[in-house]
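sorry for the late reply, my laptop died twice this morning and i had to redo everyting from scratch. anyway the thing you sent over, i finally got around to it. pasting the sequence first so we're on the same page, its 166 residues, then the predicted structure underneath. double check i copied it right bc i was rushing
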Amino acid sequence: MRAASLAILPLLLLACSGGRDPRPVRPEARDSSPAGPMLAEAAAEFPSLKVQVLELRQADGRLRVTLAFVHLGREAGPFRFGSSFAAAAADAGTIADVSVIDPLARKKYFVLRAGDGRPICSAGLADLRPGERRVVWISFPALPTETRRVTLVVPHVPPFSNLPIS
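ok and here's the structure:
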C-alpha cells in the first residue's frame, strides 16, 4: 500500500502544478535555450524594432538559425511582419528572405524549401505588439564542415558579420 502511494505522488504533484513539471530547470538547459545569451543584435530600419541573433547550429544536415524580434515601442502600434522579411507574396508572414554568406566558400545560402515550395522557417507570424519579443527560426542547407563563421543577412537590418556556428 505504501509503495503504491509513493508511486502516485509524482502524478499528484504534476496534476497540482497545472501540468507543468515541478522540478527546477537545470541552469545549463536554460543557457542553451533561445532565451540564453545572444550572439549579436541590431536595430532594424523599422522604428522600435530590434533583431537579436541567438544561435547558429549545424546538425542533421542543415544549419538552423534562431533569431528574436523585439518591439521596443511603448506607444507605437504593432509591427506587422507581412512581407517585411519575405518579398514573394506566397512567403508573406515568414522570414524567408534571410540568408547566410559563407566567406570562405564565397557562397550565399538561402532558406531551405519544402517540396511544395514553402520556406522551412517560422511562418504565420502574427503582429508583434509593443514590448513583445518573438523567437523565430530558419533552416538553411548544411555548410561545409570547415566553415566556422558566417555573415547573416536579415532584410532591413545591417548584416551580422563573423557569427560563430555551433
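The two ends are 50 Å apart (CA to CA).
thats about all i looked at so far, will dig more tmrw
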